[in-house]
Amino acid sequence: MSGSTVKVFSAAEVAQHNSKSDCWIIVHGKVYDVTDFLDDHPGGSKIILKYAGKDATTEYEPIHPPDAITTNLPKEKHLGEIDASTVEKVLKIVSSDAEKGRLARVEARPHLSEILNLHDFEAIAKLVMVEKAWAYYSSAADDEITNRENHMAYHRIWFRPKILVDVEKVDFSTTILGQKSSMPFYITATALGKLGHPDGELNLTRAAGKSGVIQMIPTLSSCSFDELVDGAAPGQPQFYQLYVNKDRNITKKLVQRAEQRGIKGLFITVDAPQLGRREKDMRQKFEDDGADVQKGNRVERNQGAARAISSFIDPSLNWKDIEWFKSITKMPLVLKGVQRAEDAIKAYDAGVAGVVLSNHGGRQMDFARSGIEILCEVVKAFREQRNICFPHPGFELYVDGGVRRATDVLKAIALGATAVGIGRPFLYAYSSYGQEGIDKAMVILRDEFEMNMRLLGATSLKEIGPELVDAGSIHQHVVPVPGDRLFETNYEGIQSARLLEL
Ligand code: 173
Question: Does residue 271 have an active-site annotation?
């Protein structure tokens, strides 16, 4: 704000500016005139108008980094501060019921010592989390077939363990893009971290530092990029996931800021020219607006939390842009969301440092194949067409989606991956137990790695190759889809089935 005196408003004053032609809102104790910004808001004007004249902090917080409003709104629209004593009532009305309920459920959760595996965090998260948050994190595209397949595909790979190997000492550390990692996975990028817990992605930053694994910071984090870099321990490597903006100047700034701040790898998301349809997420809001439906007013179908903020993503992104990325940064580039061998080879020929074989956690195209299945196709194509075996220096393969056990990770390593990405399980861990939950998840995985490497007869990841697995059925999609427990517990059908005023 310019000038030496800051204007202070009462909640009543702000409340008068509550229309489309004169719209003020309060965020983080500051008053903003957003009238001219309404039509430019990536999430549409409707959601802002719901908070016209009111405090929008609780709605704003999980979806935007703290600096989103200050950087997007011209200085003259930063009107001043709110007199906190007058706003308290407003805050209470708009916020805390959901948070109060969450905290009460958190109190009633089982002790952390009862958690034995990563699936357990998901079960607790479903009970504890605010419904909207659970809907956003757990949702996946269309009928969620790919979402379930991601996990099921690992069931089609079996081990061929070696015996009588001295496995007293086993080492499962590795390097990812040249950076040390205590285990062969990284924490992959996921948006809107504060939906699950007030500290958001900082939980991940801190736990990653503590356990020596690498966090990929998302473009759409709830915490600001700088908070997450500042939150890292000295020397703790971090990656950055990039959504490419229609305005390439914005993208250039993000990339160069990441490089300046020491980010060690840039993961460009290439599987989201448009966001998939996540009906669980969409339905959530639809039910919020149920009153309007009952009155017979047709409400606009809500697009869910993710779609609401995704309109900045550039659907025209294409292969020609890779050269431009190379010209603006020296960070290693990785394409995240490759789904076929032809594209993996194209990426290699384009000179990037690696690819993530991924279907975006089943959230984009339903019936896209699992990362682990794509890995088999990719490795075969590189062998046949480029005479390359993996791991290969200078070009790394990663897989994400459906990983819940160290055995899943070891299968991917055996088949040629350098590391895998794990996303939702860590969100569920911190949504249920804060950072301690992630710390526990790391211990669980470490113990699973140690035991399974011993049982497999391998003392280091280098010894884990394709001869230790039987992936002969990977392309057979014969696992019956109905009757899957993950589906039965997570899928939520239409709850408001009724006929509108006959
Ligand atoms: O999967 C997602 O939800 C996601 O990647 C996203 C993309 C844009 C906006 C919000 C989330």
Answer: yes
